[in-house]
Amino acid sequence: MNYTGDKPVLLTRDVQAVAVPAGNTVGLPEGTEVVITQALGGTYTLLVPAYGGLFRLASRDGDAIGKEIRPEDADARQTLSAEDLEREVWQILKTCYDPEIPVNIVDLGLIYDMQILPVSEGKSRVQIKMTLTAQGCGMGASIAGDAQNKLLDIPGVQEADVQVVWDPPWTPEKISPEGRTLLGMY
User: Fold this and answer.
1) Which residue from 4, 62, 78, 172 could staple onto 36, CB 3.0 to 4.6 Å apart?
2) Section 148-162 average pLDDT
């Protein structure tokens, strides 16, 4: 679901959320009224009128806004082949979003390089170089951290390093055809 609407929801417990675009973590107490403005990639962007802005809520805290948290499937924890691991890395990166833009970081053209390196028997290190749409974006560390945490959840990934780089500068031409469609750029 991309957009939930403007129906307010009360937090059912205390949560930590990341301010958009500043990137700092803020504690939101139980009973705080929020409006879910975006639900993409397992995270939620919340409008919090009492705090005067937008906040990103992690998927693990989705229950606080009435969303179901899916338990991890034990069968999915098997180590992947090299080909399947690369495919899974790209799929996971497509679940990472800038909370202000409803297009994933892959289709936005923010991923500049991805490497999978062996660490030990059946274990790998994933190295990502990514950029942002604007150098002044305060969410850079949060977006990179979200990607890194999701990569570490992939079976067989022992280490993950996501670096934000600025060369070459990002331009709208880097947006994939799928991203252009989502943004209404024809």
Assistant:
1) 4
2) 90
